[in-house]
User: Which sequence fits this backbone?
């Protein structure tokens, strides 16, 4: 995880966030209560990974923490106390308790989710009801020491404009710093047995995700001070049909990541680059073992650990962070009615004389010859890394952890034009030096 350079890590969820009480995860391990995860699998959570352990993990990998507070089954006081426990330097009883538990310095947690999926597992609330909850909670979520909390409200499921409007209409002040949207791409097949038609159907959903980003941003902008609300996509990814035998063997929601999953990740990351002016933060929901995870582990203490195909797709996009986005245009039809469900996906960014160009070929049945014209600049040299396997159901396993990994790929420069072959179902990132 440190190698990947994750900038922000969110915890404890997900649906578990609105049934998690932070005091269950502090203090001596032997005294922490065991709670049932009522949402996913009915497993007993022993509380051994709590607030201090999460902060330690964030520090180990260089990520900024993002804590999801409990609105569904919690109270304003509970979340208010969690913020004070984390961020108050000293002097209060809660700060003293944190110090007693081993953390002399405050955690300085900036990002706080005020509930999660309030429309579903976070309480099955109507938007007006959640807006009232948000208004109430936000009154008590304050600055301690030098850390001003950045409050992220629970937003729509997909492109649910009705939820967003009713939430905004009910706020009447108490504007959140951000609002989160969740958008998953469902799959009709087992992860290792996707048909060509179902590959196309699943990957085509990303066009609707991008449309949702544009429309939700426009909706919030239409309100007074709405432009000040950051749009956050803090859960996304592919959610395939999970076999019962896999869940019995590996646990609830365990899902293998394949070459198709990597292409899906590339489509999402390209989209975030293209819409960088509309988005504040994007977080894939899962890190380890469930849904579109970056890592798969097994054995005692996770001694077996595999970088999934999705991990390698993320690694190909790592260089874009901190860059300036560059506008890209493709020769696809401009009319929505004419535009195909799938098409070449592109994004670009630049910094310090280097341009990064990321390309995704989402077609399961078509290789592409890519020709890119650079406007206003030229490239003296170029290198490319390609993530590809001839089988879109291919994956990295404990027995073959490096079956699908990025490899150098030929690229040509002809004046202001860059050319390369992009095989079907592949992700590539080019580095161009001017």
Assistant:
């Amino acid at each position: 995880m440190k190698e990947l350079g994750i900038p922000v890590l969110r915890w404890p969820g997900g649906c578990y966030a609105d049934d998690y009480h932070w005091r269950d995860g502090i203090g001596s391990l032997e005294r922490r209560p065991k709670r049932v995860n009522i949402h996913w699998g009915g497993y007993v959570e022993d509380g051994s990974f709590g607030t201090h352990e999460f902060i330690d993990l964030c520090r180990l990998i260089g990520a900024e923490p993002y804590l999801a507070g409990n609105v569904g089954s919690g109270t304003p006081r509970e979340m208010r106390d969690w913020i004070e426990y984390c961020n108050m330097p000293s002097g209060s009883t809660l700060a003293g308790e944190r110090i007693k538990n081993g953390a002399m310095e405050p955690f300085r947690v900036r990002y706080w989710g005020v509930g999660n999926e309030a429309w579903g597992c976070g309480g099955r609330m109507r938007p007006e009801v959640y807006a009232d909850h948000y208004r109430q909670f936000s009154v008590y979520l304050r600055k301690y020491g030098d850390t001003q909390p950045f409050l992220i409200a629970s937003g729509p499921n997909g492109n649910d404009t009705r939820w967003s409007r009713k939430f905004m209409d009910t706020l009447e002040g108490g504007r959140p710093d951000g609002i989160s949207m969740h958008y998953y791409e469902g799959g009709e097949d087992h992860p290792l047995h996707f048909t060509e038609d179902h590959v196309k159907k699943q990957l085509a959903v990303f066009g609707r995700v991008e449309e949702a980003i544009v429309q939700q941003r426009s909706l919030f902008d239409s309100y007074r001070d709405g432009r000040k609300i950051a749009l956050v996509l803090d859960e996304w990814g592919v959610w395939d049909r999970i076999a019962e035998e896999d869940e019995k063997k590996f646990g609830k929601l365990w899902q293998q990541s394949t070459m198709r999953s990597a292409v899906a990740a590339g489509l999402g990351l390209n989209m975030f680059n293209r819409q960088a002016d509309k988005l504040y933060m994007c977080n894939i929901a899962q890190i380890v073992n469930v849904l579109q995870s970056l890592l798969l582990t097994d054995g005692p203490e996770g001694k077996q650990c595999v970088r999934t195909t999705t991990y390698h797709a993320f690694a190909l996009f790592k260089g874009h962070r901190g860059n300036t986005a560059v506008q890209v245009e493709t020769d696809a039809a401009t009319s929505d009615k004419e535009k195909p469900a799938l098409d070449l996906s592109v994004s670009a960014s630049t910094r310090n004389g280097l341009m990064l160009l990321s390309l995704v070929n989402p077609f399961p049945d078509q290789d592409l010859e890519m020709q890119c014209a650079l406007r206003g600049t030229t490239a003296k040299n170029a290198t490319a890394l390609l993530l590809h396997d001839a089988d879109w159901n291919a994956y990295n396993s404990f027995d073959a952890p490096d079956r699908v990994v990025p490899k150098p790929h030929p690229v040509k420069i002809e004046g202001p034009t860059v050319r390369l072959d992009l095989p079907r179902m592949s992700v590539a990132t080019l580095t161009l030096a001017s």
Notes: The chain has a mean pLDDT of 94.
